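dumping this here so i dont lose it
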C-alpha cells in the first residue's frame, strides 16, 4: 500500500493527467506506468473516492481504446496465473478475518473464480443483413463501475468481478464490506501487482480503505461512476438501486431442495450434504431447507446421517439450538453465520462426532429454521405427502425471491414442472446446489447472482452496453 507521505505527488500526477483532457474528453497524453510501490490507489485523509474514480477514468479510457481483445486476454490470463499462487493465502486471510466458512471450501471458491470466470472470449458480435443493408450490434463498456462486496465471499467476488469487468473494458472501484476489509484490500493489491507487471494502465482496479456509509454513498453517486454492482444483503442492494445509477443487484434467497420418491436417494443425500455444507452454507445458492416426500424421508435421513450429517431429534436440544442460533425476535444470530457444524453442536452441549458437516433437524414449514435464511450448516427437513405438496411448500418457503432452488428426481415432467413453477434465477437438478456457480459442472463461475435486477449469474456481458450501427444499402453479398 502507498504511504501517506506519497499522496501529494500521486494526487498531483492524477490531477495533471485530468488537465490534459481537451473539451471532447479525450486524452492528449498517457498515464504514467506505476512504480513498484504504486500498485494501488492511495489511502489516507481526503476524498479517497474522488482520487480512486479519477484514476479509474483515466485508466479505463486507455484500457478501452488502446488494449485490444488479444492484449486484454493475455493480461487476464497472467492475472489468473498470479492469483492462483495466492489462493491459499487469500483463503486463510478471509477465514481469519471474517471467522466464517472453512479453509478448504474458501480455497475452492477462490480457485473457481480464478479458473472459471469467463473472460474476453465470451463476446460475440451480432450481425444481420437484409434487403436494406447491414445492422451490427456490439458490446461496449460502461466505464467506471462501483462494486460493493460482501463479507461472505470477499476474495472470490473481487476476482470474479475483476475478470468480468476488465474483460468488458471497464475499470472498477471496489467498496469492501467492513467485516472483510483486509482480505479485500490484499486481493486488490495483488491484482494490481499482476496488472502492473503486464503493462495495464494504473488505476484500473482499486478499493476504498475508508469503509463508511458516507464513503459508499459518495462512490455510488459519483458523477463518473456509470454502473453499480451490488453483492450483499437487501440493504446494500436497496442503497445501490436508490443511487439513480444502472445497477447489477443481487438479492436475498432461501433456496429449497425437494426430493421425491423417484430420486436416487443415496446420491441425493450426499449431494444435499455437499451443497448445504459448502463453506458452511455461506453461498446464497446453497440449500437452506429440505422438503422430502414422506415415503422416502426415513431412507433419506438414514443416508444423510451415514454421510456426515448429525440429526438432533430431542425436543429439549432443538429448543436449545433455537435459542442459540436465533435471536429473541426469531432472526438469525449472526455470531453463528458460517460457523462449523461442530462449533454449533458444542455450543448446545453436544459432543460433535468426527467429520460432522451438517446438522439435520425435522421441523414443520412454519419453523424459523425453514423461514429464515440461516447461512449456517443447519438444515431443516420437512416431510410432505407428495411432489405437488412439496412444490407448493417450496414456493412458499422461497418467499418469491426467485433466487435458487434444487430438485432430486428421476421424473422428467416433475423436473420441468418445478423449474417452471419456481421461476428462480438458478435451478439445479440432481446435483449439489454449487453446480449452479460452476463447481463440478460446466456452468461459468459467478459470485453475483443478480436476481433483483434480472441479469442473473453475472458474466462480462453483464457489465456492457449494447450499441447498434446500421448501414443502409451496402455490405450484402447475396
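and the seq i came up w/
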Amino acid at each position: 500500500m502507498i504511504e501517506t507521505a506519497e499522496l501529494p505527488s500521486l494526487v498531483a500526477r492524477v490531477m495533471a493527467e485530468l488537465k490534459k483532457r481537451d473539451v471532447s474528453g479525450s486524452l492528449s497524453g498517457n498515464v504514467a506506468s506505476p512504480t513498484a510501490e504504486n500498485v494501488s490507489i492511495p489511502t489516507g485523509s481526503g476524498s479517497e473516492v474522488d482520487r480512486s474514480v479519477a484514476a479509474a477514468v483515466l485508466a479505463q479510457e486507455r484500457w478501452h481504446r488502446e488494449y485490444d481483445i488479444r492484449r486484454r486476454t493475455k493480461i487476464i490470463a497472467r492475472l489468473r496465473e498470479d492469483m492462483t499462487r495466492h489462493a491459499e493465502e487469500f483463503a486463510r486471510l478471509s477465514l481469519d478475518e471474517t471467522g466464517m466458512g472453512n479453509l478448504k471450501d474458501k480455497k475452492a471458491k477462490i480457485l473457481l473464480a480464478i479458473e472459471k470466470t469467463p473472460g474476453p472470449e465470451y463476446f460475440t458480435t451480432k450481425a444481420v443483413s437484409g434487403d436494406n443493408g447491414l445492422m451490427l450490434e456490439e458490446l461496449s463498456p460502461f466505464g467506471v463501475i462501483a462494486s460493493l462486496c460482501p463479507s461472505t465471499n470477499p476474495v472470490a467476488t473481487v476476482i470474479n468481478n475483476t475478470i468480468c469487468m476488465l474483460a468488458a473494458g471497464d475499470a472498477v472501484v471496489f467498496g469492501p464490506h467492513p467485516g472483510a476489509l483486509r482480505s479485500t484490500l490484499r486481493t486488490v493489491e495483488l491484482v494490481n501487482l499482476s496488472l502492473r507487471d503486464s503493462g495495464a494502465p494504473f488505476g484500473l482496479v482499486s478499493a476504498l480503505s475508508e469503509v463508511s456509509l458516507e464513503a459508499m454513498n459518495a462512490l455510488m453517486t459519483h458523477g463518473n461512476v456509470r454502473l453499480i454492482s451490488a453483492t450483499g444483503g437487501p440493504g446494500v442492494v436497496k442503497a445501490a438501486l436508490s443511487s439513480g445509477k444502472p445497477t447489477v443487484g443481487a438479492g436475498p434467497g432461501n433456496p429449497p431442495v425437494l426430493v421425491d420418491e423417484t430420486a436416487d436417494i443415496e446420491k441425493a443425500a450426499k449431494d444435499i450434504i455437499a451443497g448445504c455444507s459448502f463453506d458452511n452454507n455461506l453461498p446464497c445458492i446453497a440449500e437452506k431447507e429440505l422438503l422430502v416426500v414422506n415415503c422416502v424421508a426415513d431412507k433419506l435421513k438414514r443416508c444423510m446421517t451415514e454421510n456426515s450429517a448429525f440429526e438432533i431429534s430431542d425436543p429439549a436440544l432443538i429448543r436449545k439450538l433455537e435459542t442459540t442460533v436465533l435471536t429473541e425476535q426469531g432472526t438469525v444470530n449472526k455470531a453463528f453465520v458460517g460457523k462449523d457444524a461442530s462449533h454449533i453442536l458444542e455450543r448446545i452441549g453436544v459432543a460433535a462426532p468426527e467429520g460432522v458437516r451438517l446438522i439435520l433437524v425435522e421441523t414443520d414449514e412454519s419453523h424459523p429454521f425453514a423461514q429464515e435464511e440461516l447461512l449456517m450448516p443447519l438444515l431443516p427437513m420437512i416431510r410432505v405427502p407428495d411432489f405437488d405438496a412439496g412444490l407448493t411448500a417450496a414456493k412458499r418457503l422461497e418467499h418469491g425471491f426467485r433466487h435458487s432452488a434444487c430438485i432430486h428426481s428421476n421424473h422428467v415432467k416433475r423436473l420441468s414442472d418445478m423449474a417452471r413453477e419456481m421461476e428462480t434465477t438458478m435451478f439445479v437438478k440432481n446435483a449439489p446446489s454449487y453446480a449452479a456457480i460452476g463447481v463440478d459442472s460446466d456452468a461459468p463461475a459467478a459470485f453475483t447472482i443478480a436476481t433483483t435486477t434480472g441479469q442473473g449469474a453475472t458474466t462480462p456481458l453483464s457489465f456492457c452496453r449494447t450499441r447498434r450501427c446500421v448501414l443502409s444499402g451496402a455490405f450484402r453479398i447475396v
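The chain has two domains: 4-250+458-467, 256-446.
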